[in-house]
Amino acid sequence: MHSYIPEKTSQRESLFRRSRQRTVLMENRRRLKKIFIGILVGVTVTIIYLTAEDKSEPLYGPGYKKNNFTASQTPEPKWEDPGPYHVAYPRNYRFIMDDTPTCKTTSPFLILMVPVAPANVASRDTIRRTWGSEKLVLGQQIETVFIVGLPGGKAAKQLQDELREENKQHHDLIQSNFQDSYHNLTIKTMVMLEWLAEHCSKSTFIMKIDSDILLHVKKLVSLLLDLKTPKENYMTGLVWWHSPVLRNPFIKFYMPRDVIAESEYPPYPLGMAYVMSLDLPKKILSVSPQIKPIYIEDAYLGMCLKRLGISPTDPPDESMFQVTPQHPLSSCDLSKVIAMTTTSISQMQVYWQRIQQGVQCGA
User: Which residues form a coiled coil (predicted)?
Assistant: First the structure.
């Protein structure tokens, strides 16, 4: 009998091993099946998300107008989430307030476009009282309009009502239905270009100018009337050449290498104030769908200009555009300035009044 014990034990061990192998195999198959189903569901959801059209209605009811300028048939680059360094543009944003006569019943030589926060009525009123009030300069018609997005926060509805009342009085607000924020300045700029491309083909120049900037309108118009100033492919301001892409993640305007691999941005005029000929909005929009827009709006315009093979132009005098002027400015300094940053509303008013009284350099 003892001779049979090892054989039976071996058989039982063999059966046990085969049973164990079958159990492990079945468990592996179940795991693979779950993984496959998970992947299939994930891919399906992603495809649906990427291909779904935005069929939502505007927040502010009937009467809106689409930003219907179409500049290029090149497909828009697609991504699920713009992330911290890109913004969600191009998009089908809509103009929900746009009854200004500028470029519709008029054809100004120069349009001054001021991107401004919805709540910043004090700056808008200051501009209306100062340089924005200048309508005929050196024989040229000038018009000023303000561009805003949607207000946010708990008081958004009240602020929207106040914007509508403000526009009823001045008819100089252009509002689109993107969320107005610092991060969305590129969207604001591109929407501005859409509006210009659609309405202002008969005008000659546009200046984008921030709401804290003093503008010497006569000095600007004199530059634009100069026979040396091009009327096409022209963009000027405080041009930043060889501006480095900042790689320190702890400072403002950090940009990782997987967003921009180059060490420098293409040349661009600083966003505080820049001028462009009115052929450029349409051209910039034509290439923008091919370039993922970063949230640094002026650098993004430089990227679009590079794609077009166009370089910005330095102004004849570097003192014409000043981002960090040494206050207070002398009469000689003021006589040379086209645009400069101010530190307060009262400072802007004082400088503008001095310009109106006449400023010049001594003999």
Answer: none
